Structure prediction request, 232 residues.
Amino acid sequence: MGLELYSKVEPFLDFEDEVYTLHKEFMTFVMMNELDNIIDIGCGQGYFLDNLKINKKTAFGIDLSLEQIKVCEAKDLNAKAIPLADVKEKFDCASAIFDVLNYIPSQNLEQFIQETNLVLNQGGYFIFDVNSHFGFDNIAQGCITIDSDDRFIGIDAIFEDEKLQTDITLFEKNKDGLYTKESDSIIQQYHSKEFLSKLLKKCNFEIQTIQEFNLHSNDEADKLIFICKKTN
Prediction:
Protein backbone atom coordinates (compact mmCIF):
# COMPACT_ATOMS: atom_id res chain seq x y z
CA MET A 1 0.00 0.00 0.00
CA GLY A 2 1.22 3.50 -0.85
CA LEU A 3 1.65 4.89 2.66
CA GLU A 4 5.27 5.86 2.08
CA LEU A 5 4.40 7.79 -1.08
CA TYR A 6 1.47 9.44 0.67
CA SER A 7 3.83 10.61 3.41
CA LYS A 8 5.81 12.47 0.72
CA VAL A 9 2.80 14.30 -0.75
CA GLU A 10 0.82 14.89 2.46
CA PRO A 11 2.59 18.18 3.37
CA PHE A 12 1.40 19.70 0.06
CA LEU A 13 -2.31 18.77 0.37
CA ASP A 14 -3.35 21.70 2.58
CA PHE A 15 -5.35 19.71 5.14
CA GLU A 16 -4.14 21.72 8.15
CA ASP A 17 -7.58 23.11 9.03
CA GLU A 18 -9.21 19.68 8.90
CA VAL A 19 -6.42 18.14 10.99
CA TYR A 20 -6.77 20.88 13.61
CA THR A 21 -10.57 20.58 13.75
CA LEU A 22 -10.64 16.81 14.20
CA HIS A 23 -7.76 16.72 16.65
CA LYS A 24 -9.42 19.46 18.70
CA GLU A 25 -12.50 17.23 19.07
CA PHE A 26 -10.43 14.32 20.38
CA MET A 27 -8.26 16.55 22.57
CA THR A 28 -11.38 18.01 24.18
CA PHE A 29 -12.44 14.49 25.21
CA VAL A 30 -8.95 13.71 26.55
CA MET A 31 -8.84 16.90 28.62
CA MET A 32 -12.42 16.69 29.94
CA ASN A 33 -11.84 13.11 31.12
CA GLU A 34 -8.35 13.87 32.44
CA LEU A 35 -6.87 11.03 30.39
CA ASP A 36 -3.15 10.32 30.30
CA ASN A 37 -0.88 7.46 29.21
CA ILE A 38 -2.18 7.38 25.63
CA ILE A 39 -1.17 5.32 22.59
CA ASP A 40 -1.88 6.93 19.23
CA ILE A 41 -2.28 4.16 16.66
CA GLY A 42 -1.46 5.23 13.11
CA CYS A 43 0.13 8.41 14.43
CA GLY A 44 1.39 9.58 11.03
CA GLN A 45 3.67 12.59 11.32
CA GLY A 46 2.74 13.09 14.95
CA TYR A 47 0.27 15.97 14.86
CA PHE A 48 -1.90 14.52 17.63
CA LEU A 49 1.17 13.36 19.59
CA ASP A 50 2.43 16.92 19.43
CA ASN A 51 -0.87 18.21 20.81
CA LEU A 52 -0.71 15.68 23.63
CA LYS A 53 2.87 16.71 24.42
CA ILE A 54 1.92 20.40 24.52
CA ASN A 55 -0.83 19.53 26.99
CA LYS A 56 1.67 17.60 29.12
CA LYS A 57 0.18 14.17 28.40
CA THR A 58 2.25 11.00 28.36
CA ALA A 59 1.90 9.52 24.88
CA PHE A 60 3.41 6.94 22.54
CA GLY A 61 2.75 6.70 18.80
CA ILE A 62 3.01 3.84 16.33
CA ASP A 63 2.74 3.79 12.55
CA LEU A 64 3.60 1.32 9.82
CA SER A 65 5.26 4.04 7.73
CA LEU A 66 8.93 4.48 8.55
CA GLU A 67 8.96 7.84 6.74
CA GLN A 68 6.16 9.14 8.98
CA ILE A 69 7.98 7.99 12.11
CA LYS A 70 11.16 9.75 10.96
CA VAL A 71 9.17 12.99 10.99
CA CYS A 72 7.95 12.21 14.53
CA GLU A 73 11.52 11.56 15.67
CA ALA A 74 12.66 14.86 14.17
CA LYS A 75 10.03 16.53 16.38
CA ASP A 76 11.40 14.63 19.40
CA LEU A 77 8.15 12.68 19.78
CA ASN A 78 7.96 9.19 21.30
CA ALA A 79 7.03 7.03 18.32
CA LYS A 80 8.06 3.79 16.62
CA ALA A 81 7.44 2.08 13.29
CA ILE A 82 6.03 -1.16 14.70
CA PRO A 83 2.75 -3.06 14.32
CA LEU A 84 0.19 -2.91 17.09
CA ALA A 85 0.71 -6.59 17.87
CA ASP A 86 4.31 -5.84 18.94
CA VAL A 87 3.33 -3.29 21.59
CA LYS A 88 3.90 -4.77 25.06
CA GLU A 89 3.04 -1.79 27.27
CA LYS A 90 -0.42 -1.01 28.67
CA PHE A 91 -2.23 2.29 28.25
CA ASP A 92 -5.28 4.08 29.63
CA CYS A 93 -6.43 5.33 26.23
CA ALA A 94 -5.92 4.35 22.60
CA SER A 95 -6.63 6.77 19.77
CA ALA A 96 -6.84 6.01 16.03
CA ILE A 97 -7.52 9.28 14.25
CA PHE A 98 -8.09 10.27 10.63
CA ASP A 99 -9.43 7.14 8.93
CA VAL A 100 -7.03 4.63 10.52
CA LEU A 101 -9.73 1.93 10.70
CA ASN A 102 -10.77 2.60 7.09
CA TYR A 103 -7.31 1.50 5.97
CA ILE A 104 -7.92 -1.92 7.54
CA PRO A 105 -9.84 -4.47 5.43
CA SER A 106 -13.07 -5.76 6.98
CA GLN A 107 -11.66 -9.28 7.38
CA ASN A 108 -8.75 -7.93 9.48
CA LEU A 109 -10.67 -5.46 11.59
CA GLU A 110 -11.65 -7.84 14.40
CA GLN A 111 -8.00 -8.75 14.95
CA PHE A 112 -7.07 -5.05 15.08
CA ILE A 113 -9.76 -4.30 17.67
CA GLN A 114 -8.69 -7.30 19.75
CA GLU A 115 -5.07 -6.10 19.64
CA THR A 116 -6.24 -2.65 20.75
CA ASN A 117 -8.06 -4.25 23.67
CA LEU A 118 -4.86 -6.03 24.71
CA VAL A 119 -2.80 -2.82 24.97
CA LEU A 120 -5.40 -1.13 27.22
CA ASN A 121 -5.74 -1.27 30.97
CA GLN A 122 -9.10 -2.30 32.40
CA GLY A 123 -11.58 0.51 31.84
CA GLY A 124 -9.35 2.14 29.22
CA TYR A 125 -10.84 4.15 26.38
CA PHE A 126 -10.65 3.46 22.65
CA ILE A 127 -11.44 6.58 20.60
CA PHE A 128 -11.46 6.67 16.81
CA ASP A 129 -13.15 8.07 13.72
CA VAL A 130 -14.25 6.51 10.44
CA ASN A 131 -15.61 7.94 7.21
CA SER A 132 -19.36 7.74 6.73
CA HIS A 133 -20.78 6.43 3.45
CA PHE A 134 -21.61 10.02 2.54
CA GLY A 135 -18.02 10.99 3.28
CA PHE A 136 -16.64 8.39 0.90
CA ASP A 137 -19.22 8.81 -1.86
CA ASN A 138 -19.57 12.59 -1.86
CA ILE A 139 -16.39 14.00 -0.32
CA ALA A 140 -13.43 11.66 -0.82
CA GLN A 141 -13.96 10.91 -4.51
CA GLY A 142 -12.36 13.15 -7.09
CA CYS A 143 -9.09 14.45 -8.49
CA ILE A 144 -6.42 16.75 -7.11
CA THR A 145 -3.46 18.13 -9.06
CA ILE A 146 -0.65 20.23 -7.62
CA ASP A 147 1.90 21.69 -10.03
CA SER A 148 4.98 23.61 -8.86
CA ASP A 149 8.47 24.32 -10.18
CA ASP A 150 10.03 21.15 -8.77
CA ARG A 151 7.15 18.67 -8.47
CA PHE A 152 3.82 17.56 -9.88
CA ILE A 153 1.31 15.63 -7.76
CA GLY A 154 -1.72 13.87 -9.18
CA ILE A 155 -4.32 12.18 -6.96
CA ASP A 156 -7.35 10.33 -8.33
CA ALA A 157 -9.83 8.71 -5.92
CA ILE A 158 -12.77 6.47 -6.92
CA PHE A 159 -15.31 4.88 -4.55
CA GLU A 160 -16.70 1.57 -5.83
CA ASP A 161 -17.92 -1.61 -4.13
CA GLU A 162 -17.57 0.03 -0.69
CA LYS A 163 -13.87 0.73 -1.27
CA LEU A 164 -12.04 3.96 -2.05
CA GLN A 165 -9.02 3.50 -4.28
CA THR A 166 -6.70 6.51 -4.29
CA ASP A 167 -4.05 6.50 -7.01
CA ILE A 168 -1.09 8.80 -6.30
CA THR A 169 1.48 9.96 -8.85
CA LEU A 170 4.47 12.13 -7.98
CA PHE A 171 6.92 13.67 -10.45
CA GLU A 172 9.86 15.22 -8.62
CA LYS A 173 12.78 17.17 -10.14
CA ASN A 174 16.22 15.84 -9.24
CA LYS A 175 19.61 17.60 -9.17
CA ASP A 176 20.11 17.08 -12.92
CA GLY A 177 16.89 18.91 -13.72
CA LEU A 178 15.19 15.68 -14.77
CA TYR A 179 12.02 14.32 -13.20
CA THR A 180 11.64 11.00 -11.41
CA LYS A 181 8.23 9.37 -11.21
CA GLU A 182 6.67 7.45 -8.32
CA SER A 183 3.18 6.00 -8.28
CA ASP A 184 1.21 3.86 -5.88
CA SER A 185 -2.30 3.29 -4.57
CA ILE A 186 -4.07 3.38 -1.23
CA ILE A 187 -7.23 1.39 -0.50
CA GLN A 188 -9.72 2.44 2.16
CA GLN A 189 -12.81 0.45 3.05
CA TYR A 190 -16.18 1.62 4.27
CA HIS A 191 -17.25 0.09 7.60
CA SER A 192 -20.85 0.60 8.63
CA LYS A 193 -21.86 1.71 12.10
CA GLU A 194 -23.67 -1.60 12.61
CA PHE A 195 -20.64 -3.68 11.56
CA LEU A 196 -18.30 -1.74 13.83
CA SER A 197 -20.70 -1.88 16.77
CA LYS A 198 -20.94 -5.66 16.47
CA LEU A 199 -17.16 -6.12 16.37
CA LEU A 200 -16.55 -3.75 19.27
CA LYS A 201 -19.03 -5.62 21.46
CA LYS A 202 -17.49 -8.96 20.45
CA CYS A 203 -14.05 -7.63 21.44
CA ASN A 204 -15.26 -6.47 24.88
CA PHE A 205 -15.75 -2.78 24.23
CA GLU A 206 -18.76 -0.83 25.40
CA ILE A 207 -19.73 1.99 23.04
CA GLN A 208 -20.41 5.11 25.04
CA THR A 209 -21.00 7.51 22.15
CA ILE A 210 -21.19 7.48 18.36
CA GLN A 211 -21.03 11.09 17.22
CA GLU A 212 -21.90 12.28 13.74
CA PHE A 213 -19.26 14.81 12.73
CA ASN A 214 -19.11 17.31 9.86
CA LEU A 215 -15.47 17.80 8.92
CA HIS A 216 -15.62 18.58 5.20
CA SER A 217 -19.33 19.23 4.66
CA ASN A 218 -22.24 21.12 6.17
CA ASP A 219 -24.80 18.85 4.50
CA GLU A 220 -24.46 15.41 6.04
CA ALA A 221 -21.97 13.98 8.51
CA ASP A 222 -18.89 12.78 6.65
CA LYS A 223 -17.40 11.15 9.75
CA LEU A 224 -18.44 9.12 12.77
CA ILE A 225 -16.52 9.42 16.04
CA PHE A 226 -16.65 6.40 18.37
CA ILE A 227 -15.97 6.66 22.09
CA CYS A 228 -15.58 3.16 23.58
CA LYS A 229 -14.52 1.71 26.91
CA LYS A 230 -12.84 -1.64 27.61
CA THR A 231 -15.06 -3.88 29.69
CA ASN A 232 -12.87 -6.99 29.89
Summary: The first strand starts at residue 38 and ends at 41. Helices lie at 3-9, 16-32, 47-54, 66-74, 106-118, 133-140, 193-202. The chain has a mean pLDDT of 95. The two ends are 33 Å apart (CA to CA).
